[in-house]
Amino acid sequence: MLRIALIIGSTRTPRAGSHVATWVHSILKTRSSDSLTIEPLSIADFNLPVYDEPVMPAMVPAMKQFTHEHSKKWSAAIASFQGYIFVIPEYNYGLAGGTKNAVDYLKNEWPGKPVAIISYGVHGGSKANEQLAESLGIVMQMKVVPTKVLLPFAAGSDLMSAVNEGRIGDASLKEWEENGKKDEILKAVAEIAEVLKLEAKVEDVLERKE
Ligand SMILES: Cc1cc2nc3c(=O)[nH]c(=O)nc-3n(C[C@H](O)[C@H](O)[C@H](O)COP(=O)(O)O)c2cc1C
Questions:
Q1: Domain NADPH-dependent FMN reductase-like, which positions (predicted)?
Q2: What number does the ligand 1 atom closest to the CA of 12 have?
């Protein structure tokens, strides 16, 4: 069974990210099967303080161990997935601090795994999307899939309810559907599945050789 985490990147309450992730999940549920599941995972639920371990994440677990329960839980949760879809907000023209902090907690849980990034915000969160892609791709050595999904809030009352109440309005959902965002999300997940399928084939070949 392959497991993909739908990571909700926002850490404030109320958060628009939960609503965006619920919408994304409703699209992706159709892609869940006996061999692949997509499971929501909220960074906020881990109550991670600003990074407070005495060791660098790169040293764990080969040379040192995490000392705090919150780090151990976050590490175990992330390690248990084979792929990831991040749903992230943009704060002040960049990646939100809470999202970056959670990513920075870990190093050896990420490499080699496929990841898609979906961002939302007033303009769709393109800067946050790019920054996370660089961090995960270049530093964490993850396979960031080519399809990047940007979800801009519809102008007017929708924008205000998202920003102030963390609620995504019908106008935004309608615009996203009309602008092909559902297809983009499905394409991004298909790209993750493709990476996992290729890896399974390589493993198969290697096993046969042994
Ligand atoms: C501190 C802060 C900074 C923000 N800066 C941006 C920004 O640079 N670009 C953007 O599109 N939206 C920005 N916003 C609006 C957020 O996209 C919006 O509040 C959204 O609801 C945040 O997601 P969340 O509720 O899941 O945290 C900002 C919001 C906050 C709280």
A1: 3-154
A2: 27
Q: Quick one: average pLDDT of 5-16?
A: 93
Taking the centre of ligand 1 as the mean of its atom positions, its distance from the CA of residue 71, in whole angstroms, is 26
What is the number of domains present in the chain? 1
pTM exceeds 0.90: yes
Residue 195: give its domain's CATH number.
3.40.50.360
Give pLDDT, residue 209: 66
Host domain of residue 145:
2-209
Dihedral pair phi/psi, residue 106, rounded to 5°: -120, 155
Instruction: Please tell me the distance from the alpha carbon of residue 152 to that of residue 48, in angstroms, as a whole number.
Output: 28
Could you report the per-residue pLDDT of 115-125, keeping only the tens digit for each?
A: 999 999 999 99
**Shortest-distance Cα residue to atom 20 of ligand 1:** 163
Q: Encoding tokens for residue 120?
A: 């939302």
Residue with the nearest Cα to atom 29 of ligand 1?
91
